[in-house]
Amino acid sequence: MGLMSFALGTCCYTSTYRPPYMICKATINNNNHALEAAYIRRAAELADKSAGFTSPHPNFGCVIATSSGHVAGEGYLYAQGTKPAELQAIESAGAWSRRATAYVNLEPGDCHGDHTAVSALVQAGISRVVVGMRHPLQHLRGNAVRALRSQGVQVDVLGEDLKSKIIEEARKTCLLVNAPIICRSALRVPFSVLKFAMTLDGKIACSSGHASWISSKKSRSRVFELRGRSDAIIVGGNTVRRDNPQLTARHGGGHMPVRIVMSQTLDLPEEANLWDLSEVSTIVVTQRGARRSFQKLLASKGVEIVEFDILNPREVMEYLHDRGCLSVFWECGGTLSASAISSGVIHKVFAIVAPKIIGGKNAPSPVGELGMVEMTQALDLIDVCYEQVGPDMFVSGFLQPLPDVTPVIPSVDETFAIDPTVTPHESSIIFFYKTWDPHGSFSNFSHHPIQMPDENGDYATWLSVEHYYQAQKFVGVDDPLAWECVENIKSAKSPEEAARIGRSIQRQQPDLVRSDWDSVKIDVMYRALKCKFSIYPHLNSMLLSTAGSVLVEASPHDLFWGGGRDGEGLNYLGRLLMQLRSEFLGGAKV
């Protein structure tokens, strides 16, 4: 089963308890490995359920099964900064968790320094954990396995402790569902999917350029779902000029990928659907110095401009990696597609083949010149999948195999032994951004609930610092709509959703924002962070361990809370954390 062929789940991510049911052992020939594989495949399927509803993140799924074969509980990570899959499954299973086995597609560890998942498994009395794959991020890899084993829990890792053909097939589903984080970790670029729709004779438009519509309405609906699985959608200048696309996910809510236009010359129309930022933002990447006057025009509309000394797909992907992207969706024409493939940044292809023939000597094809002169040079897809959607056929496959998830990377000490000129820990700057980064617990999006007083002095629980921060924008405003905003943000299922609600309302209905917000927002964030680092001892220890280092929130686009792409940001989040660190250290000396 390919990465994109997992079923999309509903937006609800908390498993409700239901009486345990029996997986029919007859269907798996009473083979123990087949039973183990079935549970792991189910965990991988669960892990994919939030795809399209939240921004891409490491996908975790968990199944709790008793020794008699009953599935007692299930869960999956909805978004970064939400309740771990393992904890959801245990809450669903209740007392059935004791002496049961937990099956997880990915080694626990969404956030460095957060032991919620491991602690939940141990405290619930789980006797054994089967892990589909070790965590691909080096700072998390092996941590949970070691922690569980140190607590007396038996841990079996597929491919290490369990080996067979059927086990390897189950392990493959775990790799596929987390292909984006694997590629990001091993290749230092986002996982990239190239999608195109073509006629049976290989054309993506008529000779005139007209292309609406090659694929059916059902196929286009599926494309909206695929878009929602990505951080960003990339098109070239030709697509903007010819099709004037909107590039929205249009699935009735949830994650909206940023839209990116690649254009060396900025020969783009002054009016285009992509310059409408009411629903989602747009970034234009271009050659340094291109059409300065047009850059100013786009900037006046709110479009972000990013210049490159050398504009090519590889440079753009490395930039998007630094920006925190896990997955990118390419919907460009043949010229840019060929360039992206030649640059080696495309990992998977989705081709929609419509049962139509349009002919035309000059009609464009989905991929331009690759310099191939013999069929022996053709690029063969790996793990090819076929699916009929309406009258169309979806053909998907990988252009390159997924990289090794356990590369041999020397430790700091090993590196020093190899090259004595390398000084261990010489960097005095610590960057953090996504919750899965080495210091991701510092993020205001991390899954650490806090209790903060309201206007009446009564304490309320907020699921994250970001939930509290976004809601404070509307507190004290004498308007029922503002009160509703606060409640909607408070009940948001993830920090990402809380931020999306708060920012959207602030942009669309600025009259609902408290008048003193600009002057108090730093203090609001400070108080929330102080609460977080005061009530979680391991976070406090992690913060104090950074003494002597500069802390930088590495968001390349948030120039207030983050450090910006080239250090031009104000980095107020990093500043507040360093202020708190100083206060905590001062208190410890008293």
From TrEMBL:
Catalytic reaction list: 2,5-diamino-6-hydroxy-4-(5-phosphoribosylamino)-pyrimidine + H2O = 2,5,6-triamino-4-hydroxypyrimidine + D-ribose 5-phosphate; 5-amino-6-(5-phospho-D-ribosylamino)uracil + H2O = 5,6-diaminouracil + D-ribose 5-phosphate; 5-amino-6-(5-phospho-D-ribitylamino)uracil + NADP(+) = 5-amino-6-(5-phospho-D-ribosylamino)uracil + NADPH + H(+)
Location within or outside the cell: Plastid, Chloroplast
Coiled coil: none
InterPro entries per the UniProt record, alphabetical: CMP_dCMP_dom, Cytidine_deaminase-like, DHFR-like_dom_sf, Eubact_RibD, NADAR, RibD_C, RibDG_C, Riboflavin_Biosynth_HTPR
GO MF, any single term: hydrolase activity, hydrolyzing N-glycosyl compounds
UniProt-listed SUPFAM superfamilies: Cytidine deaminase-like (SSF53927), Dihydrofolate reductase-like (SSF53597), YbiA-like (SSF143990)
UniProt keyword annotations, A-Z: Chloroplast, Glycosidase, Hydrolase, Multifunctional enzyme, NADP, Oxidoreductase, Plastid, Transit peptide
Record keyword Chloroplast present: yes
Gene3D superfamilies: Cytidine Deaminase, domain 2, Dihydrofolate Reductase, subunit A, YbiA-like
GO BP, sorted A to Z: carbohydrate derivative metabolic process; riboflavin biosynthetic process
GO CC terms in record: chloroplast
Pfam families assigned: dCMP_cyt_deam_1 (PF00383), NADAR (PF08719), RibD_C (PF01872)
Enzyme Commission code(s) on record: 1.1.1.193
Domain of life assignment: Eukaryota
Domain CMP/dCMP-type deaminase span(s) in chain numbering: 34-156
Pathway per the UniProt entry: Cofactor biosynthesis; riboflavin biosynthesis; 5-amino-6-(D-ribitylamino)uracil from GTP: step 3/4
Family: In the C-terminal section; belongs to the YbiA family.
PANTHER family xrefs: 2,5-DIAMINO-6-RIBOSYLAMINO-4(3H)-PYRIMIDINONE 5'-PHOSPHATE REDUCTASE, DIHYDROFOLATE REDUCTASE FAMILY PROTEIN (AFU_ORTHOLOGUE AFUA_8G06820)
Protein name, UniProt field: Riboflavin biosynthesis protein PYRR, chloroplastic
Organism in which the protein naturally occurs: Castanea mollissima
